[in-house]
UniProtKB/TrEMBL annotation:
Signal sequence interval, chain numbering: 1-30
Organism: Coprococcus hominis
SMART domains: FN3
Keyword Ribosomal protein in annotation: no
Name of protein: Fibronectin type III domain-containing protein
Length: 436
């Protein structure tokens, strides 16, 4: 009888211990909350969340709210978990919107005679936030509305649900260079760019969540190509070495100034402007406009430049949004005229050169050629003499008969503290007959 009583007490103690261990296990498992709900993927109508799950949970009921949690809607309405992993991908969402989301852990319990039942633990749930990408359709056609020599300005239409815009250059966000971020209330941006360049820009609408997640979709953009800055300035203005200066040797007031386009420009200019000043730079004489991109010279006649010369500079432009966007001015070139030479035959082998004084001249250099009638490559020019500023005539001797003799006189002038020489763009000639 005593043995039976002892055995019953042992069974009872074992049963109590088992129940306590089971209860402790359940309590331990149920005590872990869902945490750290975070968005990991985005589209215009979809968003994926991941989170830290609750220990022992069979799965999770997934909810969302479009009114900041005032009313929740579950993604399904059956008894089974919506997700068996600590993640979920929402679909069918609206474009450019913010949603509150919630993950509730679900536990599985076996009930005798019923089978397995699911119990949701609302007190162990966690909430978070997701956003969807705005649509790029509303951006419309992105257009360029301005340019300077170091910037471009582009503009677009507002996109619903956008909290900021991100702009990439030369390629989309996969391979391009991010050049700007602007607020969603802003629909234009001025971007730094190098003069003479043109680029393609990509505008992405973005919606940012309160946690800092950016809903930007790689295929969701509008782009614009051929966005130009103002060009780089023309070069080689009025350069004799590049055949960009010539005087009409008969009128003395008519001159042609040329220039070269800047080869560093990535596009062709659409026109030019030429500013002509007095030789000392104190007075603007004339501004000329050229609206033909292929015309890179200008012939003009100004009485003010006769025997004085002038200063000249050139800029180029492109038209953006109906407005001319000019380059910086080229380097200013001082152009000095040659002396206006008159030839008088003095003998079979000599010619007298007479000229009018060139303003600011400090002296003149006289050049001659004994075979001026030959082809250019065979002409042999030589310096005859250098004379002072008060000298306005000189007789060249020892010329050859039976040939054309050529002459030109180059003045050296001083303007301020600098000295300049005329370019030899023409010459006068006379046939040296044997029968003088």
């Amino acid at each position: 009888m005593e043995k039976k009583r002892v055995f019953s007490k042992s069974l009872l103690l074992l049963a109590i211990t088992s129940i306590m261990l089971f209860a402790m296990s359940i309590t331990s498992m149920a005590a872990t909350n869902v945490t750290n709900i975070r968005q990991t993927e985005v589209g215009q109508n979809r968003a994926k969340i991941e989170f830290n799950g609750a220990d022992g949970a069979k799965g999770y009921y997934i909810y969302y709210s479009s009114n900041n949690g005032a009313k929740w809607k579950r993604v399904d309405d059956d008894i089974y978990p919506d997700s068996y992993k600590p993640e979920y991908t929402y679909t069918g969402l609206s474009v450019g919107c913010t949603y509150k989301v919630k993950a509730v852990p679900v536990y599985e319990t076996y009930v005798s005679g019923t089978g397995y039942v699911y119990n949701a633990k609302e007190n162990l749930a966690a909430t978070g936030e997701i956003v969807t990408a705005p649509s790029s359709d509303a951006l419309g056609t992105v257009k360029q509305i301005g340019a300077t020599y170091n910037s471009v300005t582009i503009q677009w239409s507002p996109s619903y649900g956008t909290t900021k815009y991100v702009i990439y250059r030369d390629n989309n966000m996969t391979n391009g260079v991010k050049v700007a971020e602007v607020k969603g209330s802003q629909t234009s941006v001025k971007l730094k760019a190098e003069a003479g360049t043109q680029s393609t820009y990509y505008v992405y609408p973005v919606r940012v969540s309160s946690t800092g997640y950016e809903a930007i979709y790689s295929y969701n953009y509008e782009s614009i190509s051929g966005v130009k800055t103002a060009p780089k300035a023309p070069v080689k203005v009025a350069s004799l070495a590049y055949h960009n200066i010539s005087w009409d040797k008969y009128s003395r007031t008519k001159v042609t100034v040329g220039w070269d386009r800047n080869d560093n420009n990535e596009f062709y200019e659409q026109g030019y402007r030429i500013a002509v000043y007095s030789v000392d730079g104190k007075k603007k004489l004339k501004t000329y406009n050229i609206t033909n991109s292929y015309t890179r010279s200008k012939t003009f006649s100004l009485k003010a430049i006769k025997n004085k010369g002038f200063r000249v500079k050139v800029s180029s432009y492109v038209v953006v949004n109906g407005k001319k966007c000019y380059s910086k001015w080229s380097k200013t070139k001082v152009v000095i005229p040659q002396a206006n030479v008159k030839l008088t035959r003095k003998s079979k082998t000599s010619v007298k050169l007479s000229w009018k004084k060139v303003s600011n001249a400090t002296g003149y250099t006289i050049y001659a050629c004994k075979n001026a009638g030959s082809f250019t490559s065979n002409k042999k020019w030589y310096k005859v003499a250098k004379v002072g500023k008060k000298t306005t005539s000189y007789t060249v001797k020892k010329l050859k008969t039976g040939n054309y003799a050529g002459f030109y006189v180059i003045p050296t002038v001083k303007i301020g503290k600098k000295s300049y020489k005329a370019d030899a763009t023409w010459y006068m000639s006379m046939y040296m007959s044997k029968y003088y």
